[in-house]
Amino acid sequence: MLTTFFDSVLDAVRSGDKDRARRLLGNLGEPNETHLGFSSGRSAGRGFGRQMGDLLAEKLAASQAAQTGLIEDLEDTAFFIDKVGKDIVSDITTNIIRGPLIAYTQQMASVFGIPLDEDVTSGPVWNPHTLEWEHGYTRLPIPGDHKLLLVPKVIVRRDMYLSRAEYYRNHLVPTLRSEELDNPSSNLVRTLKNGSKKVYTRDIQERYGSSKTDITRESLLRPDVYANYRSLKRNIAPPPISHEELSQANRTSLPDYEKLLADVLDTPAGKADAGKYHHRIEALFTALFYPSLTMPEMEEEIHNGRKRVDISYTNVAQDGFFQFLGRHKIKSTYVIIECKNYGKEVGNPELDQLSSRFSPLRGRFGILACRSFDDKDRFLKRCRDTALDHRGYVIALDDNDLREIVADVMEVINWKPSDRPQAEPETQPRVEGYPLLFRRFKALVN
Predict the structure, then answer these.
(1) 31 belongs to a structural domain
(2) Helices (H), 81-222
(3) pLDDT tens for each residue of 231-240
(4) Omega of the bond prior to 291 within 30 degrees of 0, cis?
(5) Exposed (0-12), middle (13-18) or buried (19+): which is 48, by Cβ within 10 Å?
(6) CA gap 364, 395 in Å, rounded
């Protein structure tokens, strides 16, 4: 959606269609419905307004960076267009993905029982097929008479991924330094006592400048430098915001894993409390497996409603166990969870029920959550039989297994800084507390 919108804007700018550029950008406004700003009380920031849309259209039309192709994506504008920063980029992005955010809000309202009002004005919604804005009515929460849009925390960031300071320091300055060293008549080159040649960063800054205007000018002369930086960043997805970062930003409490576990364990076994167990497993797993698994769907219908999935998660793992599945060619686009609050032994029927939810598109991995086993070793062997028969990969977790996973996660959280691996922040792997999942999976395939 972002690509089709911004390509439409750039096409209008480059073809000289000022009216279409203004119309596209004129439908943008500050999206207060997400409440992601810094305002105290009612959301009322100083973000993107209609006047800013007209101004951005003019700036893009006059920008050599936009005309020459240096600007390709929305985030590039923060590099090369004056008065465009992360707040403006954030507002524009939220406007463009308003349609998916509405759908996500409705999905989460269903999961958590949030009341929705009917016939709420949607605001402008971008249609990536017609390449036009659409307006209509939808269902949304209206707490305190103000629209609310929920946002998946896995896509929220504190800063933009492309950093002008990083680009300038690590890409543009080294290029300028190399050019000066290769220039025999350069007066920036210093000869050290050992005979080596050096160009100091401060001299580069004095000669070429470091403002947005300076960076734009020098990048236009060397478009490959910025293109290479952008390509490098595209190949490495930005890490999602952690529970800790989100807690600090919002001044809210961290997930209480032990309390979430206690809620599960305190649920009486049996059919009468099956729904309660189902919801409590979702609450525990959503906290435990973030940011690898996101967007839980409860009672998702498949096969035209002939079957239901208790819980399904979208797998967006960048590392750890759930990324390990994909690396080993095990399809896990969605991770399927079946919840069995039985006071009796689970057996082949329950295992077959879960494996019947697998498909090449949805995925072939799932977790069976249950209370206990009469013969745990026998059931784990059944899971292995299912895997060896190419019917999918099932890890079964009972109450004791959940205790172990939570204890492992708490041990990771309670590590002292001196206990952690010493590495640069951007290269340090995120430690997961899921050794049990690795062991169970290894038992399926070995």
Answers:
(1) yes
(2) 86-96, 98-112, 164-167, 173-182, 201-208, 212-221
(3) 999 888 888 9
(4) yes
(5) buried
(6) 11
Same-domain pairing of 140 and 78 = yes
Name the DSSP class of 126: E
Q: Which of 279, 295, 293, 289 is nearest to 257 (CA)?
A: 289
Helix (H, G, I), strand (E, B) or coil at 140: strand
Q: What are 95-149's pLDDT values in tens digits?
A: 999 999 999 999 889 888 899 999 999 999 999 999 999 999 999 999 988 899 9
Residue 20 to residue 80: CA distance in whole angstroms: 22
In 18-85, which residue ranges form alpha helices assigned H by DSSP?
Answer: 18-26, 50-62, 64-68, 77-80
- Alpha-carbon dihedral sign for residues 260, 262, 265, 270: negative
Q: How many domains would you assign to the chain?
A: 3
User: What's the full length of the chain, in residues?
Assistant: 446
247 belongs to a structural domain: no
Handedness of CA 386, 388, 389, 390 (dihedral sign): positive
pLDDT above 70 as % of the chain: 91
Phi-psi region of 240 (alpha: psi -120 to 50; beta: other; left: phi over 0): beta
- Residue reference for tokens 């309390």: 259
- pLDDT tens per residue across span 411-441: 887 754 444 444 444 333 344 568 999 999 9
Report whether 59 contacts 81 (CB < 8 A). yes
* Residue 300 pLDDT greater than 80, yes or no: no
- Which helix (H) or strand (E) is 214 found in, with range? helix 212-221
In a domain, 50, yes or no: yes
Place of tokens 């919801």: 279
Q: SS3 of 417, please?
A: helix
Is 133 found in the same domain as 181? no
The answer as to whether 83 is a domain residue is yes
Measured from the Cβ of residue 376, the count of other Cβ atoms closer than 10 Å reads 14
> Given CA atoms 104, 109, 111, 112 in this order, what sign does their dihedral have?
positive
Residues 433 and 293 in one domain: yes
Q: Could you give the CA distance from residue 125 to residue 133 in angstroms, rounded to a whole number? A: 5
Q: Say how far apart CA 263 and CA 281 lie, in whole Å.
A: 9
